[in-house]
Amino acid sequence: MEKYLRKNFDVQPKNPSEEALRRWRSAVWLVKNPRRRFRMVADLVKRAEGERKRLKIQEKMRVALYVQKAALHFIDGVSRAEHKLSEEVMQAGFSIEPEELAYVVRSHNIKSCREQHGGVDGLARKVSVSLKDGVVSSDIPLRQKIFGINRFAEKPSRPFLMFVWEALQDLTLIILMVCAVVSLGVGIATEGWPKGMYDGLGIILCIFLVVFVTAISDYKQSLQFKDLDKEKKNIMVQVTRDGSRKKVSIHDLVVGDIVHLSIGDQVPADGLFMSGYNLCIDESSLSGESEPVSIDNTRPFLLSGTKVQDGSGKMMVMSVGMRTEWGRLMVTLSEGGDDETPLQVKLNGVATIIGKFGLAFSVVTFLVLTTRFIVVKAIHNEITRWSISDGLNLLNFFAIAVTILVVAVPEGLPLAVTLSLAFAMKKLMDDRALVRHLSACETMGSASCICTDKTGTLTTNHMVVTKVWICGEAKVVERKRNGNVLKSLIPERVLSILLDSIFQNTNSEVVRGKDGKTNILGSPTETALLEFGLLFQGDYSAHCNESNIIKIEPFNSVKKKMSILVALPSGGVRAFCKGASETILSMCDKIVNKNGESVSLSEEQRKSITNAINGFACEALRTLCMAFKEVENTPNVDTIPVNDYTLIAVVGIKDPVRPGVREAVQTCLAAGITIRMVTGDNINTAKAIARECGILTNDGVAIEGSDFRDKSPQEMKDIIPRLQVMARSLPLDKHKLVTMLRNELREVVAVTGDGTNDAPALHEADIGLAMGIAGTEVAKENADVVIMDDNFTTIVKVARWGRAVYINIQKFVQFQLTVNIVALMTNFVSACASGSAPLTTVQLLWVNMIMDTLGALALATEPPNDGLMKRPPVGRNVNFITRVMWRNIIGQSIYQLAVLGVLTFDGKRLFKLNGSDSTDVLNTFIFNTFVFCQVFNEINSRDMEKINIFCGMFSSWIFMIVMVSTVTFQVVIVELLGNFADTVPLSWELWLASVSIGAVSLLVGVVLKCIPVAPDKNAATIKHHDGYESIPSGPDMA
């Protein structure tokens, strides 16, 4: 089976090939309900059509963006009619129509923008907004009414009745309904009312029960996915409103809003550039062109959906929602749906294999029943005499054969994956993890390595400056002491230069909230530096307004520094630079002395500074150096120097380890998951934090990115198994590490990332984990899971749920295959031996619902337990149906078949059943026993290896509801619905016997779990740096 599944039903979790997707679709055979079975599967035809539409729009935009000609604008200007202001727009106090405003950006006509509308200033007047203070909050409803809401057109949610209609598309159920209607008509005609309608009506009622339970389950799943989809699209944007900077949802953005953009941001709407530095935009998502576009006053048009590749800036929103170019494109991007997950594909394969066997058994059962019936008629010389009752018998045989097919083709297998994933995604959302791609839930359960960032993931990201090295001395910064005390420790002239460096060279902003409190908007590192500066001088804005900024080079993870060029009030020009200690120190040849003068930096002083940096780092402090340089003031000075700086100070920033991280790391190690820290920080800081977290062990290796990238592939392969910390790494180092782990060492790798440059590593990894708080939109878009609280313990929760999804599906498959085997063999053997099937159509439909929808609900939604993180991860290419599962399936099937066989052929004697209704009582007893065998086997399936299957059962409320509902409805069917279900009421002794025989399944399970099973051929024993090895199965495991 596994060989067949690997050949036809094997797809990659991320970016599967078109050929693989088509291969498994063509291999699927005998699908009862394609609309439901493939609802959560990508529609390749629609996707191809959507891609064609997208390329067509991109081509048009490429023409508009890159091939503009003066003639085009001239013709457009001649033919384009002036927009007359509508009454509604004039009454609202605006001087431009929404369509005209949208056209300004769409046309990319800078001449028209300036001459007709007066550029940004003129357009700001037309939309009644202050470029300094932004939109007034009270105007937002009016602006949304006139210019629209920043939302894209979405397909309406499908109503519940649509899911009912989908569930009714099952071919076998349609055939059964036809049989039921014929049976109803013939029954009433021959046996009269109401006796003649029971058989047909019973089938119809049971079909509708199956349909409604299925539809309710599917409908709830769709609502969960819709909620998650809304969360994915909710991006927070920084705007200026009411004179202050604040964060708002992308959906609350309105025309006239002043939006602040920085590296990695997504442009949230169409707009015009106001001001900024080195703003570089990636427009490939819209135009298909990979070359970034520089945005400035000569090319001020910014398009929604594009990404900020470099620099920073401010823009004024011109059009939102469906009036933007991105809005038009989004309609096509959603065509075709998401790719199916590997488990969904694999279980489609399992369903196909079982379906083939089921069809064979179904046909043979019908032929055997029909042949026996004809032979008996021939023996009694009645072959020429046929009555309506004979026709009803043949119809009943056909209905039983079709029902066997209903039970035999496990449509619920692939859908159980969707159910389990939907449940896991909902729970992970509550645990602050947003799953962007379904397959990530599955793959995370197989993760054998997590490459994690340090800052904000292992640490709190609440940074505070605790030490500063300045004027040759290290000083402790105590929060309890005020700035006046610190001022006395630092010479005034030196302090002035230090504050200039802190307040000028920053991309953060100090704002006052409505409550009057000071808030800092920016990265945690910037916040820590500004808070440190505010200890000395409270008036941040006065200090900043003294100088004019000429140029800014924002921080990025490659340069590891931020630089700024400012024009001083005195007329001079000064460059400030801050960043990684080693980088900045290497750029300096002078140092500020106690008198505030720049003096030459001696080798002894350089060594002393390096020792101070290492001392801070060994105390687990992040170290930053700050420097400045006086630049010659020439008319066209706009280049920031890269050397000959004067060192001002070294600051040590404390970023404490998050509570619970050490425990989470230990949990991962016990689960066979190696943790590797990959950070841009100083190696000593990284090692100190790694030891505190329990990542770095005595025999582990800590290395700098520069040393790693200089090694040969073989040297990398040798060192990686022991590699636990990589410091001062570049994004390319992380990408190389991930590639080596995946391709050379065959590990399943999860990677965290927050910056724009982390996108390649996130894309390359098996599971990309982006940070929700510190992460850029580019990183989130390339990730599979967004960790909303940036917490490492949340990553461990994702791993737990990933393992739970995989094991839950295995439990459900084990349970369903057992029911399949027993139901098929019981009816087949009985039909061959006695000429009748002990389980009727209605009874088989009820059994199908127990093992399909209800079974999936009970087993596929089990929450994770602690035991899941005490076993090794599932490796690549392992058998999905393991030897342990086959042991349990075969063992339970043998027991159930033996019991049902004995009851079928010797039940009357064993239970002393006499009288005219003895056959009916026996058949009801067999049906009841069969159902209770499944109920207890469902409990057995909760754990495939451990004896204590009751652990956590009563806290799993979905499982308990399904169990209670199944037993309750079974009692109702047997005792009250006998006319419809072909049952008769049973005595308490027979009820007790049914439950007891079913309960013996638990004892059989205990015996089976004590039988040792050899590991699967493809299962690899994983040994990690903590000496952990995989746990054995068999009696030891039990």
From TrEMBL:
Q: Where in the cell is it found?
A: Membrane
Entry GO terms, CC: plasma membrane
* Cation-transporting P-type ATPase N-terminal domain segment(s): 114-188
Could you tell me the EC number(s) of this protein? Answer: 7.2.2.10
Q: Name one GO molecular function term.
A: ATP hydrolysis activity
CDD domains, A to Z: P-type_ATPase_Ca_PMCA-like
- Protein topology in the membrane: Multi-pass membrane protein
Which keywords annotate this record? ATP-binding, Calcium, Calcium transport, Calmodulin-binding, Ion transport, Magnesium, Membrane, Metal-binding, Nucleotide-binding, Translocase, Transmembrane, Transmembrane helix, Transport
Which residues are listed as membrane-spanning?
A: 171-190, 196-216, 353-375, 395-424, 949-978, 990-1008
Q: Does the keyword Cytoplasm apply?
A: no
Broad class of enzyme this protein falls into: translocase
- UniProt cross-references to Pfam families, sorted A to Z: CaATP_NAI (PF12515), Cation_ATPase (PF13246), Cation_ATPase_C (PF00689), Cation_ATPase_N (PF00690), E1-E2_ATPase (PF00122)
- InterPro entries per record: ATPase_P-typ_cation-transptr_C, ATPase_P-typ_cation-transptr_N, ATPase_P-typ_cyto_dom_N, ATPase_P-typ_P_site, ATPase_P-typ_TM_dom_sf, ATPase_P-typ_transduc_dom_A_sf, ATPase_P-type_domA, Ca_ATPase_N_dom
Catalytic activity reported = Ca(2+)(in) + ATP + H2O = Ca(2+)(out) + ADP + phosphate + H(+)
Query: Organism's domain of life?
Result: Eukaryota
Primary location class: membrane
Q: What is the protein's known function?
A: Catalyzes the hydrolysis of ATP coupled with the transport of calcium.
Q: Which NCBIfam families match?
A: ATPase-IIB_Ca, ATPase_P-type
Family stated for the protein in its record? Belongs to the cation transport ATPase (P-type) (TC 3.A.3) family. Type IIB subfamily.
Name of the protein described by the UniProt record: Calcium-transporting ATPase
Organism classification, top ranks? Answer: Eukaryota, Viridiplantae, Streptophyta, Embryophyta, Tracheophyta
